[in-house]
Amino acid sequence: MPKARAIRGATLNQESARFGLPATEADGDWLDGRDLIDGEPQPLRTTVTIEHPKTIISRNASPDVPFDRSINPYRGCEHGCIYCFARPTHAFHDLSPGLDFESRLFAKPDAAALLRAELGKRGYQARPMALGTNTDPYQPIEAEWRITRQIVEVLAECDHPLTITTKSDRVVRDLDLLAPMAAKGLAAVCVSVTSLDSRVAMTVEPRAPSPERRLAAVRRLADAGVPVYVSIAPVIPAITDHELEHLIERAAQAGAKAAFFIPVRLPHEVAPLFRAWLDAHFPERAAKVMATIRSLRGGRDNDPDFFTRMQGSGPWAELLRTRFHIACRKHGLNQARITLRSDLFRPPRGPQGDLFG
Q1: In this predicted structure, which of 161-175, 259-273, 287-301, 306-320 has the lowest mean pLDDT?
Q2: Phi, psi dihedrals of residue 113, rounded to the nearest 5°
Q3: For residues 47 and 104, is the Cβ–Cβ distance under 8 A?
Q4: How far, in Å, are 12, 52, 61, 273 from residue 69 at the CA level?
């Protein structure tokens, strides 16, 4: 049975074989050697590598998501959520989607300058910019690097619409920027809360803030006038699905205006990592969890198809949708659509201010 490391999500650190890489244990660091001597997993150190991309705005045309552009200040995520669909991206760096993803991180300190340049290009058309679509923009290293804040500062200066998705209460640090943007109809925040059970949350999302801290952040954002969604994503069968109604109730009590959910997705290397995690933490129900996941994913561990990949299909998925809609109606969520303005956008000022802007 795989060993669980203290305050880490993945139990494996196997490299991906999808890109012709050897399917061997990634080295991690000297701690792998310590395992052999001491017999118990040692805490992994987090390392951060500086990355210098040429552009910072990512574009997409997916029919499953409500945005067409996003920014990812970091690669990898220290929160260590075992189900994270972004884990496979670490294979692009010849690193493991397992423990490497949550301990060997990449930061983009040039992000704000790149953003300023791209927003200043002739013909740029503003639409909501999404932060937190891949890895969490407010993960622990943001406290030191402050790249996300620098990005928000540029967007605020330009009156550019912004959405943020995060599991961290660190987002309230930037209320001095977000509240004025929200007052203009330019900002909305989505806070992800997957379980109210602190023991489950600590296992599923070992380095993310506690559920109560996240709900407290929802309240602070709402009280400051920032429209807040609560994301119940993912819903894990036989582990968190029984909490759905209570999560919606708590979200409403905290001041959220809307909520949504996504059944757990297991793309590419996430599936074996998730199975190993189940064996380590929930061996008595692992078979039931995977059987239910396959039932809502067309008999597979994952359904990659547009339109169904975010919703699931079959009786279990339909029951979950029914429960969700009933609970939202009961607690007054999703009564009105949150919309952001794009008509206020103005390009960033050049180095000489407005004189030559």
Answers
A1: 306-320
A2: -65, -40
A3: yes
A4: 32, 19, 9, 29
**pLDDT of residue 259 exceeding 50:** yes
Laid out side by side, the sheet with 228-235 consists of 57-59, 69-71, 129-131, 162-166, 187-192, 228-235, 258-263
Confidence of residue 152 (pLDDT cuts 50, 70, 90): very high
> 86-123 pLDDT, tens per residue?
999 998 888 999 999 999 999 999 999 999 999 999 99
Distance separating alpha carbons of residues 349 and 157, to the nearest angstrom? 9
Task: At 193, list the tokens.
Answer: 């809360």
Distances (CA, A) of 107 to 47, 76, 307: 10, 9, 32
Q: Is the pTM of this model over 0.85?
A: yes
Pick from 326, 185, 172: nearest CA to 261? 326
Instruction: Please report the DSSP string for 18-76 in residue order.
Output: TTS---SB---STHHHHHHHHSSPPPPPPEEEE---S--EEE---TTSS-SEEE-SEES
In the predicted model, is pLDDT for residue 254 greater than 70?
yes
Cβ atoms 95, 26 nearer than 8 A: yes
Q: Return the CATH architecture of domain 31-331.
A: Alpha-Beta Horseshoe (3.80)
Distance of CA 33 to the CA centre of its chain: 32
Separation of alpha carbons 301 and 125, rounded Å:
39
pLDDT at 51: 96
Q: Which residues are CB-neighbours of 55 under 8 A, at least 6 positions away?
A: 114, 118
